[in-house]
């Protein structure tokens, strides 16, 4: 009897795990059969760590982000530079020789993603870091401008990012994360940027919990957010819009939820 009960317990537990795995992988209905492409299939230099270490391991720790914040405060004591400025004047000079991201410089063996951070580059770097650090995150933080190499030629970077948003390092890392942190800011509406909209959509598709931080944004022009958002690359805009078109109405509601969420200093989780 004891053996029979034990076997029943094992079968039930296995079934539960299989159902959970199936639930987590429902996104294939969104991504139209997309499958993971190994880093070496995307690259020209197979010896670069971006082609060896999986995308969900291109992370930094909270301590490393805090150290970077300290460097920013020293370099810009009287202003809060945006991420564009920090990348140009700090990240690129520090990573150009190695030809890899700041995250992989800090963690040569990689660091598994616990949190995926969605944000805009137009935000103040100091406010961005402080908003994340208020959560006291544990584990790896996947932050695009630290995760992706910033000094690669455009053609090489495009090859790394891929042509299908669901196969990009962004989507791969987000799917593996335990939480998505949406960082709002004073400078620009988060969802006027199309990649941020896609990341919100992916959080829903992969059923990853969302945490909202940063100042609440009450005013939003509907013709500038959601699928009307802009994108630096025309090619990315076409691909991202195509990936999300069937969920246009739902995405509009998810965007409004994040923008209206009252979490500022003490964020609360919301479901997407």
Quick synopsis:
The protein is α/β, with parallel strands linked by helices. Helices cover 46% and strands 8% of the residues.
List the helices and strands and how they pair.
Layout: H1 2-24, H2 28-31, H3 62-75, H4 83-95, H5 102-106, E1 113-118, H6 125-133, E2 140-143, H7 144-147, H8 154-161, H9 169-176, E3 179-183, H10 194-206, E4 210-213, H11 234-244, H12 248-260, E5 269-270
Parallel strand pairs: 1-2, 1-3, 3-4
Antiparallel strand pairs: 4-5
Rg over C-alpha atoms, rounded to the nearest angstrom:
19 Å
- Counting helices, strands and paired strands, the structural category is alpha/beta
What level of helicity do the residues show? 40-55%
Query: How many β-strand stretches?
Result: 5
Mean pLDDT score, rounded? 82
Order of neighbouring strands in the sheet with most strands = 2-1-3-4-5
Question: Could you characterize the architecture of this molecule?
Answer:
This protein is 46% helix and 8% strand. It contains 12 helices and 5 strands. A 5-stranded mixed sheet has the order 2-1-3-4-5, sandwiched between helices. Strand 1, helix 6 and strand 2 form a beta-alpha-beta unit. The radius of gyration is 19 Å and the shape is globular.
Key descriptive features of the protein:
272 residues, alpha/beta, 5-stranded mixed sheet, globular
């Amino acid at each position: 009897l004891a053996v029979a009960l034990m076997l029943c317990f094992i079968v039930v537990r296995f079934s539960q795990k299989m159902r959970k795995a199936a639930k987590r992988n429902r996104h294939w209905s969104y991504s139209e059969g997309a499958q993971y492409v190994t880093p070496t299939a995307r690259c020209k230099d197979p010896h670069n760590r971006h082609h060896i270490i999986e995308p969900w391991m291109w992370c930094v720790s909270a301590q490393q982000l805090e150290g970077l914040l300290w460097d920013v405060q020293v370099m810009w004591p009287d202003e809060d530079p945006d991420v564009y400025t920090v990348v140009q004047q700090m990240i690129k000079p520090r990573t150009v020789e190695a030809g890899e991201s700041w995250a992989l410089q800090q963690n040569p063996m990689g660091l598994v993603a616990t949190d995926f951070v969605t944000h805009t580059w137009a935000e103040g770097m100091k406010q961005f870091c402080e908003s994340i650090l208020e959560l006291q995150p544990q584990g790896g933080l996947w932050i695009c401008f630290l995760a992706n190499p910033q000094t690669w030629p455009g053609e090489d970077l495009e090859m790394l990012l891929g042509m299908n948003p669901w196969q990009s390092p962004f989507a791969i890392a987000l799917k593996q994360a335990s939480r998505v942190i949406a960082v709002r800011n004073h400078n620009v509406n988060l969802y006027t940027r199309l990649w941020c909209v896609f990341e919100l959509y992916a959080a829903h598709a992969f059923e990853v919990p969302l945490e909202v931080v940063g100042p609440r944004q009450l005013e939003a022009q509907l013709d500038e957010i959601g699928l009307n958002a802009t994108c630096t690359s025309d090619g990315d805009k076409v691909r991202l819009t195509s990936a999300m078109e069937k969920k246009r109405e739902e995405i509009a509601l998810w965007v409004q939820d994040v923008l209206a969420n009252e979490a500022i200093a003490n964020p609360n989780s919301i479901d997407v």
